[in-house]
Amino acid sequence: VVLKLILSNVDREEVVDRIHKYLQEVGQETRAGLIPIDKFVINKGLNKSPEDYADAKSQPHVQVALRMKQRGVSVRAGDTVPYVICTAEGVADGTKTGFAERAYHPDDLKREGSTLTPEWYLGQQVHPPIGRLCAPIEGTDSARIADCLGLDSSRYHAASSSGLAASEEMYTLDSLITDEERFRDVDHFKARCRLCQQSGKFEGLIRGERDKAIPGLMCPNPTCNETLSVHSLRAQLLMVIRNHVKRYYEGWMVCDDTACGAKTRMMSVYGRRCLSAGCRGTMKYEVRLE
């Protein structure tokens, strides 16, 4: 709803007013329990067995998976665990551990006699993305959004005055960047033909080449011309996605200086500065969300 309002042709003042009213309704309906539970469900994958997590007490999906295994439900690496954050007696709200211990499977919500924690969802799941969407819009800020949601706006005043002008000078709007530039660092999906075993970049159902439109489901090998199976493409794409998710959760960082090539999973006390002798590069995640 907020994104549609931002992209509409309505005047800025009216857009801001509608966003504020909508957020007030969201806050009121969330606290009143008028929103279906399935809207609050968070899904997160396991990249290893639940018992193998050293920090299991701070991982909500791991806590839910362990409870499921105690009830005899099979849970293993690669599975996606759904959970909701609830209010539980005797569990602290302010710590990361307390947050994880308040995670329950949606089916267990009524069984445990718990209720959803509206303040957590409004503060952690609603406010951050709405704040980022509305950051460039004049007439609203992080504190005003928090106030509309019924949150403590004083916690967000510092973020509202933290040099937005400087960040605008450093970044270019995605709409002004070509697809080639925006996605220059991505790994392209390469489809493999089951007949000749040759792989080629998959560019969609139809790809343009000079003045011709070429079917994208044809084998990239000109001597083969076999039609690629949709089921095979689906299986290959699923394997690629799983591999990238696995690599993302491994958390490997690499130095952006090609002459260095340092690689580690440990964050330095000096931030993301590369610690290799004589290197002035910056450590960046090998696989990151964009």
Automatic annotation (TrEMBL):
It comes from Jimgerdemannia flammicorona. One of its GO terms (biological process) is mitotic DNA replication initiation. Transmembrane segments: none annotated. It is an enzyme of class 2 (transferase). The keyword GTP-binding does not apply. GO terms for cellular component: alpha DNA polymerase:primase complex. This is DNA-directed DNA polymerase. Keywords: DNA replication, DNA-binding, DNA-directed DNA polymerase, Metal-binding, Nucleotidyltransferase, Nucleus, Transferase, Zinc, Zinc-finger. The keyword 4Fe-4S does not apply. It comes from the Eukaryota. Its main location: nucleus. The lineage of its organism: Eukaryota, Fungi, Fungi incertae sedis, Mucoromycota, Mucoromycotina. Residues 176-287 form the Zinc finger DNA-directed DNA polymerase family B alpha domain.
